[in-house]
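Handoff note, outgoing to incoming analyst
You'll be picking up this chain. Sequence as last confirmed:
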Amino acid sequence: MPATDTTSPTKAALEAAVLDLTDEEIVDALSRIKSSPVKQAYEDRKGYTWPREAQRNVLDALARRLAGGRARMSG
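Most recent structure output, in case you need it:
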C-alpha cells in the first residue's frame, strides 16, 4: 500500500507557482513595493552595473534573508 500524500493541494499549488517564477518576475515584484528601500537600492545598483548583475544581487540577498529564518514584521 503506497504512503498517502499529506501535502495540502493548495500548499502544493502555491509552492509550484512560486517555484515557476522567473528571476525577472521575483526582482520585478520586489522592486514594485512602494517607497521600498529595495526599489531604490535596486535601481541604483542597476544604474551602476549590468541589469542582470543587479538582479542576481537582489536574488542573492533574498536567498540569504530566507536562509536566516523568519523575521519580525516592521510596524
